[in-house]
Amino acid sequence: MELRRRIIPIMYAFVLVFTMLSVQPQATQAEILGLQPDSPENVEMLQQPLDDLDGEIEEAISEKVMPGAVVLIARDGKVVKHDAYGYAARYVDDDFTEMDEPIEMHEDTIFDMASISKLFTAVAVMQLWDQGHFDLDDVVADYLPEYDTEEKEEITIKQLLTHTSGEKAGPSQPLYDIEGTRADLLDFTMAEPLLNEPGAEYVYSDINYITLGVLIERLTGERQDAYVEENIIEPLGMGDTMYNPSEDLKSRIAATEEQPWADRGLVWGSVHDEKAWALDGVAGHAGVFSSASDMAVFLQMLLNEGSYQEVDILSDEAFNLMNINWNTDYPGQDHGLGWDLNQDWYMDVLAEENTFGHTGYTGTSVVASPDLDTMAILLTNRVHPTRETVSTNSIRKKTSSLTANAIYAWDAKNMQRLVESLNKKEEFKDETVARSLSLHLKAVEHYENTGHSEKVRKHLAGFNSLIEYHLENEAISEEVYETLLSHSDYLVNQWK
Q: Which of 60, 94, 405, 465 could lock onto 386 through a cystine, CB 3.0 to 4.6 A?
């Protein structure tokens, strides 16, 4: 009887603890374990589109769009593709004179991330918001006396983050031509006259983020690189991410551009952006170096709404504020607090209202889709050995496109999801187009479920005829037609 009296309370306590744990929100594997390599099939992605990306990148390299690249694609916290192509360093000058011993690109090559550095600045700013240092609608002049002028006194912190402050794109003079300390150059930059009235227009501006970098430094008493390292890089374990890489890392870093106008020679291992270089390599708009693996950790933290491996970088509220489109007054310039939103010019079909990303002038780009729990990272050294090269926008978009193919062409049900996404973006003439496509795909789904491969192929052929009919009747655009056709082709190949 005494033993029974002891056992019952113990069992009750065990049940109570188990019940409490069961009702708590369950962390995902990606949140706890971090990113893990896996096969595409285990996250319902097709292998073929990911393999086809290899040829697209090799072709871009052969056309001298860039000397080399690294790609990393992940879904549900699983890395399904991580490959390197071409060369990290190939030329000694802007005449494309070949090095005696070019350095091949590797999966762990470190890149100058250029304007993707702005994401680190934005996260740092929102960490300070989390700590209660300011409200987003506070005027900058409350914290930086340089903005306490008749022209700039109404600019808010949110306007700096969303590129709606009225600031010009950049300083009126090259900062490396101006004598003085880093503080002097920052003062010069913040004193630049405005281009527009605050809130009147969207203008992508490095001055906005240089100023945000100053805000971080004034509020924390630390230079931005020290703050970012202590509060973002180290907690996330991003060992290949830094400002101002040490000389011993040079062989692992992708070379960039020859810059004789700044008397720099071939820039390799030092920040490419001349403004950041003049600011001792540390600025709010540029200066971060990183690898694809490290950037995947950073993006996964954001996809997890601010946490990674049980380390909290941002609160849920801060992340949600960052992922709101604050630029509804500027159609086509959707922007959160730090990153682009819904930009199909490089996100392609992955672009949705909450898809976030950024590009960098050196040839870098990152895209993350919360709806699909997917990221697509393309890092290139397209400015090596000169910025006067073919735009990387095409291969950026192709990377996103083939990532989307791998997801949406998994089966007919996923293709229905694609149709819904396109319909939401108003890519069809009217609702009847979306309805006809969805009904046809439901029939395909039925035959997939019953394993009738011949009927799957037959109905997908009918789907192709249907989208051709809609194209001929101007109910869909050529681009939408090609998107749907490519997905259909990938899907039918599975049933041959």
A: 94
